[in-house]
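request received
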Amino acid sequence: MSQVTEVVKLRRKVLAEIARMTFAGELINNVEEILNTVVTEDGPRYRCCIHKERAVLQSRIKLALSQPASITLKSAAQNAYEGQAADMPMIHVMSEACDQCPIDKFIVTNACRNCLAHHCINSCPKKAIMVVQNRAYIDKNKCVECGLCKKSCPYSAIIEVNRPCESACDIKAITAGSDRRALINYEKCVQCGGCKTACPFGAITDRSVIVQLIQALKADKKVYAIVAPAFVGQFGAKVQPNQVISALKKLGFYDVYEASYGADIVTVEETREYIESVPEKRSFMTTSCCPAFVDMIDKHLPEMTSAISSTVSPMIATGKVIKELDSDIVTVFIGPCIAKKAEAAKYSGVIDLVLTFEELACIMVGAGINIAAVEETEYKTHASSTGNNFARAGGVVQAVIKHAEKLDGNVVIKPHRAEGLSNCKVSLLQLKAGKIDANFFEGMACAGGCVGGPGVLINSKVTGKLIENYAATSECKTASENKDAMDILNKGGHWHVK
Amino acid sequence: MTLVSIEICMGSACYLLGAQDLLEAIESLAPEKKAKIDLRGATCLKACGNGPNIKVDGVLLSNVTPKELLEIIHDKING
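response:
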């Protein structure tokens, strides 16, 4: 299946064009031009007319600039140019783009034979089904969408239609508003980005700070990049990690850190925390690297917040290390994740900007840098193998277990893990009820772990293998062998959430 | 029989617009069809912005979708 759909192409073209204009210093004057260059008179046309296409594009551009819908494009560009980003959630529904998908959940299809048994009518607790024109008919005023009719039909003639955004949201934070447009309930939303990937109309998107970053790069500041361990293979299966690092420096980054470096610090701290608290103080402990998972517990299972490890995430740990070096610097996390954007906002002053791999690739294209053509150099990862494997589901558990084994052969960690917020939620409830025999739980919001995030550029099956190979090249195998990171840890510092 | 020469641009701009999907489309072909293709990667075909770009028997084609590519291959192989 093709991954780069027309929706994805459109989004990337807009981001790359904004980046190009920002580098050229012409964004404020020419931002409106994007409406004509990306959507042209002669198509291709995805929506009813060119006017709607451009209305959607306007919203898309404003979100790409992290500006509210209420201001003009020109002032949006001006604000972004000055480095401002509006204080608003990361994920948004662009109401013009939402197709207001039908919400008639159960539909009788042509396969209905108007049989004699009428299991559908008999199974309906609300008597909402009757036969009209030789076929079953569901009275929408009576139907409560229980689904019993669908289950009862021997021909499978009744089908269930779900809105893609709703099905993608494991925590039921997106619903149809009164005008049938998708509506995000931010009290429940953990900004995982599942709905963005799922919407076939491209109506949901995250806000971006690409212009703010380019401006920081242009303004002679020391800008540090922190790349998530999932970066391996993202920019093409043949593109080497060292080419990505060189390309980042070519773009103007002062230095590049791998978040797996922070992951080594996290591994040691989290293991220590586990040994100190389980089982005496709590029956089990969960990981804390995935911000959507942590937010899910905070918002949906508040009684379990005490089980979350207080250790900060690898992103925050790496950010803290860099911020110790110098005060007047900018830290930029580049990863596969949208929830990291929200996490960074919680810890102001540690991570200044967060971008996805997709956004970075658009900036590279806007800057005219072809990562595939960047000359190869010698480069070795600064983290351990286990730190690099944080990008894959199961990586954190593995890192902690291996470190614990080195510390003390008598420590017994009984791990359990889950991917997907719904699966995580179920597992946590079972853990609490004692139905799962485990005392250390790894939760990942995305299938496959970070490599399956909404900001990736390539199938997680490809990158999973590449990351494994890259991790194997590391000179140190476990966290404690990473001497550099251990020196920093031994100096003290705060690696825990207050 | 001469092979059908296909060059797929794997530069950043084309990659972003779906070059990987083109590569996967060719990888998924039946072995007897794949054997008739001389597949190569290119770093840049100098048509960025209009990607993904490919060259089939030396002819540059832009904005190619996996479906179109498979049709082109089918036509070429079946003469």
